[in-house]
Structure formats: C-alpha cells, structure tokens
Amino acid sequence: SGDIDINSFDLLSVIGKGGFGKVWRVRYKKNCKEFAMKEMSKAKIIEQNCGSSILGEREILSKIHHPFLINMIFSFQDESNLYLVMNLFTGGDLRYQINKLRCFSENESKFFIGCLVLGLEVIHANEIIHRDIKPENLVLDYKGYLKITDFGIAKKQVKQNSNETSGTPGYMAPEVMCYQNHTVAVDYYAMGVICYELMMGVRPYLGESRNEIKEKILSRQIVIK
C-alpha cells in the first residue's frame, strides 16, 4: 500500500505493548474508521534476529482473511519501523475474560470453541500451523465473537518439523514437547486445553517448567467428569 503512511492515521491511544514496540488504537483519516496498529522497531527486530518470523506473519496475514481471524488491512514501513494495521477489537482477550469470570457454562464454552474451530479450519486449509493457540491470542469483538490473532510463530506444515518447538508449554501438544514431527493437530490439542480451562477454571496440566508439564501430560490422561 504505497500511498499509506503514518500520517494517514490519527494515533488515539496505546492499547498494548509487543516485543518490538507499541500497539496503537488509530483512526484512519480517510474514512474515520478505527483500527489497531502494530508498530515494530526494525532495530529491535534485527537485534533479536526475528526478521523472518515478522515477514512470515505479514505474508500469512496478507493471504488469509476470515471473520474469525484478526485481519490485516494495511502494512507499510518507514526508516525506523514496520507497521501492520489490523481490525480493532474491544472485548479484551480470552485470558482477561477467564480471569474475570473463572468458569463458563457448557454452552458458552461451545460458542467460543465454535469460533475457534472456524478460524482454525481456514488457517489449516492454507497448510499453516498456528502453533500458539492460547487465551492471550484469542480476542473478542464487542458482540463476544472470538478472533484468532498473533501469527508470529506460525509455520507452513512440512513433513519434517521435529525441530519446531516454539509455543507456550501449558498449551503445547505432547508431540511438540517430545521433539517429534507434528501436524495441524497440535492446534486442536491447544483448543482442548482451552476448552477444559473454560469449563473447569484451570488448565488440565500445571507446572512451573516445560519439563514439569511434559511429565504430567505423559503420566496421566485427563478425564472430564
């Protein structure tokens, strides 16, 4: 988007902080619509050697658009920063809701999981594994519909991927924990953990470290009573 730059927007407020900079609530001057704008410092991206994952995220977001994903509307850059402009959602993330309400009914849980399944189907149809499905990466719109965000460690599915072990331990599938080749099923494992957490108010496997959680997963199968 060549004719779009930082001056195309009014910066309204900071709504979050990412690893590389701020996330702004912005108003697009042309039509007064509000968006979320992720501002990422090129220096920090280079320093942390994350160029390929940032470009990967941008490429995925430019390819996939769906009502249950956070969609990228514009992307542009200047000398110092890269910018991704995305849908703005004001309902907080699912972690905020879990902390606030502790437990959800079976019907409420079904609704959230339904939104998540529809979003995941689109991601997986494009042969992409999200790899970091967790409540912090699921945001709500003002009607309570769930949207998947943060494709920072998403990867195209390949046969040999046993060395891909990024993710969040509490939501990580056993095959990733055990350094095995894996498929899009790892996203559904994370979804199962979230489903349990929604209804029970706590994750099925708890631990201080990746190894502790791994031991718990391997030692017992969870049963929802």
Summary, kept brief:
With 225 residues, the chain is α+β, with helices and mostly antiparallel strands. Helices cover 34% and strands 21% of the residues.
Number of strands: 9
Q: Provide the spatial order of strands within the biggest beta sheet.
A: 1-2-3-5-4
* N-to-C CA distance: 52 Å
Provide the gyration radius in Å: 18 Å
- In DSSP terms, counting alpha (H) and pi (I) runs of 4 or more, how many helices? 7
Question: What amount of the residues lies in strands?
Answer: 15-25%
What's the pLDDT, averaged over the residues?
90
Low-confidence runs (pLDDT<50, min 5 residues)? none
Structural class: alpha+beta
Main sheet makeup = 5 strands, antiparallel
The backbone outline, from C-alpha atoms, is globular
Order of helices and strands: EEEHHEEHHEEEEHHH
Helix content estimate: 25-40%
Explained architecture:
The chain has helices at residues 42-47, 51-63, 94-101, 106-125, 174-177, 185-200, 210-219, and strands at residues 9-17, 22-28, 34-41, 72-77, 81-87, 128-129, 138-140, 146-148, 155-156. It is α+β, with helices and mostly antiparallel strands and 225 residues long. The strands form three sheets. A five-stranded antiparallel beta sheet has the order 1-2-3-5-4. The protein has a two-stranded antiparallel ribbon with strand order 6-9. Strands 7-8 form a two-stranded antiparallel sheet. Helix 4 runs antiparallel to helix 6. The mean pLDDT is 90.
